[in-house]
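Renewal narrative, Specific Aim 1. Our central claim is that a sequence can be written position by position from structural information alone. The example that follows is taken directly from our test logs and has not been curated for this report. It begins with the structure tokens describing the chain, in the order in which they were read.
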């Protein structure tokens, strides 16, 4: 396979120069499962491991390779194995906050051109969840497209589509039925040789079923248990990049139970540009849009031009971003403080040493 078919281009070529000089080759991560990698390059597929030095020098989960990443490797072609020495910068990355108290970045998929946000038109349908996915998708640098799957189960699919369109400015919205193979042509304009699309969404929405339909084969395992009985169980358990027969690549991911935001609020501005525009008209610059006088956002709710649930969703996401930013500042301050503590300790030790020498 040629690198260009795998998505290689000038951006990666530029960053690869120092590694080429060290005789490393470039490969793309196509599977990752608990620290074990499978990568693909001009020489085919290789089982990869991270070099000890890379592991030692990498202090942050988000800096480890993930599916879709380009890496610099040294390979042992006879054994089909390779060692990963470095990670090339990402053109785009879909990231979320690692669940729990930490403020670490979890990169779900990297170097994606289009991110398909899949939502089921059954009990899974939830506008607020779509807003959350869209926010993270705009942060990623990839282009989001919303797929409302299981249209066969929803007589009001067109109505749902309109509802989603009203909250998803700039992103395409399509209804489809993967199991009945209807509406899949909406995906075709996004699939090209050398381009990568990723599928994201809750468990059971039909991500793997859609990919199988695109492949024209039952390559990926899909949930065969009845919907209610399978709640909370993930059928896809690891992330994987798959080559389509027509060229182009798709990344399948396991459903996410919880999608916590990651980024710097650019996504929120994009998804909630209506609220941001209203907020700029509030009397107070630091208006929280609760019950302050002269609040243009509350005014819009009163005259029914803004849905209070949408405002709720906006405020919740905003709070998460603020929390994330505060925690990151705290962490940065703590690191800085620890650094100064070490420096001042060193200088104290040095002074003591000098004093002893003078005596
Ligand atoms: N009625 C209907 N069922 C569908 C459709 N697409 C998928 N399903 C069913 O939904 C269930 C879940 O599909 P999967 O493709 O495994 O879902 P997934 O999003 O990959 O789930 P995880 O891998 O757990 O994240 C399966 O039983 C599918 O047969 C559809 O268009 N209509
Ligand atoms: Mg799946
Ligand atoms: Zn306000």
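The sequence written for that structure reads:
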């Amino acid at each position: 396979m040629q690198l260009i078919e795998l998505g290689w281009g000038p951006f990666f070529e530029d960053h690869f120069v120092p590694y080429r000089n060290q005789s490393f080759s470039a490969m793309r991560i196509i599977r990752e499962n608990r620290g074990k990698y499978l990568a693909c390059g001009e020489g085919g597929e290789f089982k990869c491991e991270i070099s000890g030095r890379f592991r030692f020098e990498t202090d942050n989960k988000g800096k480890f390779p993930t599916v879709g990443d380009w890496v610099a490797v040294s390979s042992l072609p006879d054994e089909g194995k390779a060692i990963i020495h470095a990670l090339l910068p990402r053109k785009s990355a879909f990231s979320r906050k690692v669940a729990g108290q930490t403020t670490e970045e979890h990169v779900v998929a990297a170097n994606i051109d289009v991110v398909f946000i899949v939502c089921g038109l059954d009990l899974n349908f939830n506008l607020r969840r779509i807003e959350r996915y869209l926010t993270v998708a705009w942060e990623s640098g990839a282009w989001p497209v919303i797929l409302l799957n299981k249209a066969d189960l929803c007589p009001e699919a067109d109505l749902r589509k309109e509802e989603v369109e009203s909250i998803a400015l700039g992103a395409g919205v399509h209804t489809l039925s993967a199991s009945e193979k209807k509406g899949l042509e909406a995906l075709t304009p996004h699939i090209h040789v050398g381009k990568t699309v990723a599928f994201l969404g809750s468990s059971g929405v039909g991500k793997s079923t859609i990919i199988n339909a695109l492949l024209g084969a039952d390559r990926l395992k899909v949930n065969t248990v009845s919907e209610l009985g399978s709640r909370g169980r993930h059928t896809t358990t690891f992330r994987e990049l798959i080559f389509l027969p027509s060229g182009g690549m798709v990344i399948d991911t396991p459903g996410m139970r919880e999608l916590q935001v990651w980024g710097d609020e650019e996504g929120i501005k994009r998804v909630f540009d209506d609220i941001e525009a209203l907020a700029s008209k509030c009397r107070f610059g630091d208006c929280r849009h609760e019950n302050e006088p002269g609040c243009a956002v509350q005014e819009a709710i009163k005259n029914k031009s803004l849905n209070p649930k949408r405002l709720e969703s906006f405020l919740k996401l905003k709070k998460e971003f603020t929390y994330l930013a505060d925690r990151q500042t705290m962490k940065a301050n703590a690191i800085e403080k620890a650094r100064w503590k070490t420096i001042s300790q060193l200088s104290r030790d040095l002074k003591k040493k000098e004093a002893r020498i003078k005596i």
